[in-house]
């Protein structure tokens, strides 16, 4: 084989190797993509962290968190801004819960038949901000009329520290007088005419939104 032929063979081998390498394939891919459809944005649930990728990875590693745990911390920190964690429960201690809400509570004082009987003053929170810490097996429930409101109370002491209100079945009504001391700053009480429940709720501008995160 002559020098010219050998040199051509070496160039050919180098060209084939470069074409088959990841970089070569990538370059070919970029060339084809230029004439193809535009890149699609990440789908739901996909993360494009950009310049924060290394910071995110370091945060996960430092705190030994899974991606889900780290994402939950981030979402909680954003959604719970301006809120405090209240804790509370029933009289005997069988029921304990925690709830994220403002330190300044907006409490409803309803005059419907059952709320009057049990003095059911309550503030409303989204279900995602309420966590039952213990006592699920010590709860019992009373319903009546439409059966949408779930009046839960402790089997032992009879105290209703929280319940599911008819106005907001996707949230919880929390009894402010069942919270532990130290986290509530002020309470503003609003009377609501539960004797004409449908009309009162329909005309109220914000009550339905109080169980939305």
What Rg is obtained from the alpha carbons, in whole angstroms? 30 Å
Shape: globular
- In DSSP terms (H or I, runs of 4 or more residues), the helix count works out at 6
Number of E strands:
10
Distance between the termini: 78 Å
Which strand-content bin applies to the residues?
15-25%
Uncertain regions spanning at least 5 consecutive residues: 1-33
Order of helices and strands: HHHHEEEHEEEEEEEH
Helix content: 25-40%
For the largest beta-sheet, the strand count, sense and barrel status come to: 5 strands, mixed
**Structural class computed from helices and strand pairing:** alpha+beta
Structure commentary:
The protein has six helices and ten strands, in the order H-H-H-H-E-E-E-H-E-E-E-E-E-E-E-H. It has helices spanning 3-20, 22-34, 53-63, 67-79, 113-118, 197-203, and strands spanning 84-89, 96-101, 104-110, 121-126, 130-134, 139-142, 151-154, 162-163, 171-174, 186-192. The strands form three sheets. A five-stranded mixed beta sheet has the order 8-9-4-3-10. A three-stranded antiparallel beta sheet has the order 1-2-5, with no helix packed on it. A two-stranded antiparallel sheet has the order 6-7. Strand 1 (84-89) and strand 2 form a beta hairpin. The longest helix is centred in the first third of the chain and has 18 residues, at 3-20. The chain is globular. Residues 1-33 have low confidence and may be disordered.
């Amino acid at each position: 084989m002559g020098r010219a032929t050998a040199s051509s063979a070496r160039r050919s081998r180098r060209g084939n190797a470069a074409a088959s390498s990841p970089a070569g394939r990538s370059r070919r891919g970029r060339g084809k993509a230029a004439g193809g459809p535009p890149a699609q944005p990440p789908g739901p649930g996909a993360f494009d962290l950009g310049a924060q990728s290394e910071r995110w990875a370091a945060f996960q590693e430092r705190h030994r968190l899974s991606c889900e745990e780290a994402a939950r911390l981030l979402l909680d920190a954003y959604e719970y801004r301006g809120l405090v964690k209240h804790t509370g429960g029933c009289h005997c201690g069988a029921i304990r819960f925690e709830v994220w809400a403002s330190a300044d509570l907006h409490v409803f004082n309803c005059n419907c038949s059952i709320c009057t009987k049990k003095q059911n003053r309550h503030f409303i929170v989204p279900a995602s901000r309420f966590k039952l810490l213990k006592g699920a097996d010590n709860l019992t429930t009373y319903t009546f009329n439409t059966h949408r409101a779930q009046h839960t109370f402790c089997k032992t002491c009879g105290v209703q520290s929280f319940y599911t209100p008819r106005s907001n079945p996707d949230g919880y009504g929390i009894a402010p007088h069942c919270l532990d001391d130290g986290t509530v700053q002020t309470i503003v009480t609003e009377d609501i005419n539960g004797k004409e429940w449908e009309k009162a709720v329909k005309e109220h501008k914000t009550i339905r939104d109080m169980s939305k995160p």
